[in-house]
Amino acid sequence: MPLARGVAAVMIDLDGTLLDTIADLAAAAERMLLALRLRACTLEQIRSFVGKGIPNLVERCLQASVGGARAMALQAAALALFQDFYSEESGRRAALYPGVIEGLEQLRAMRLRLACVTNKAARFTLPLLEQKGLARYFELVVSGDTLARKKPDPLQLQHICTVFALAPQAALLIGDSVNDARAARAAGCPVICVSYGYNEGADVHDLDCDAIVDSLSEAATIVKGALS
Predict the structure, then answer these.
(1) Is 13 among the catalytic positions?
(2) Gap between the Cα atoms of 195 and 189, Å rounded
(3) Cα–Cα distance, 70 to 129 (Å, whole number)
(4) Which terminus of the chain, N or C, has fewer Cβ atoms within 10 Å?
(5) 46-100 per-position pLDDT tens digit
(6) Residue 69 and residue 139: Cα distance in Å, rounded?
């Protein structure tokens, strides 16, 4: 759908959109697999596993490393290990993508309401936003365990629209993956995708989105143009 002139809020994904977190996730996964004496996954494999939350990431690591019934049997222990290791690794190497701060400042200058919406659990999301100086920009943070369902389900976006008292077409989502695009379409929200994220190894140009940008700053410029 075209960006409406009435956009009043912007919802922004975290991993692959605001922050490049792949090195921290890979470090935790490597430690998890090592502790279980399993074969390591490559960085590119880990990159393609990101998007649907940590339990899914752990499951895909196990399937890639050992597969079959053993992977299923190890899921609970592996998840506990990953969460412990990621608590230590999260933020160590994570870096802001170029244009993120500029884009957030531009959006705030337009007096738009801002929310961060991610499939990452709150125990990791909130400290990471604080550590990287991003928490102050967001009026609302909806994490992967805030509600009963997460992207690609539309529930997180619908919740934000309800909290902000906005119609879906007035709330724009900016993300990097098929999960973002599908959630936005199901919720009736416009969606812009960044070109540099993870998208589970797929081409971002294949996504059903309203625009593809190279930075959050570029997305903010599009929003400003739609509002003018």
Answers:
(1) yes
(2) 19
(3) 36
(4) C
(5) 999 998 889 999 999 999 999 999 999 999 999 999 999 999 999 999 999 999 9
(6) 44
Burial 171-203 (b: 16+ CB within 10 A, else e): bbbbbbbbbbbbbbbbbebbbbbbebbbbbeee
Rounded CA gap, 117 and 145, in Å? Answer: 11
168-224 pLDDT per residue, tens: 999 999 999 999 999 999 999 999 999 999 988 888 999 999 999 999 999 999 999
Give Cα separations from 186 to 30, 120, 147, 151, 191 (angstroms): 35, 20, 17, 10, 11
CATH number of 9-20+95-227: 3.40.50.1000
- CATH 3.40.50.1000 intervals, the chain: 9-20+95-227
Write the burial class of residue 100 (CB in 10 Å: 0-12 exposed, 13-18 middle, 19+ buried).
Answer: buried
Q: Which of 13, 20, 176, 210 is catalytic?
A: 13
The whole-angstrom separation of Cα 151 and Cα 17 is 14
Length of the chain: 228
Q: Per the structure block, which two tokens stand in for 95? A: 């870096």
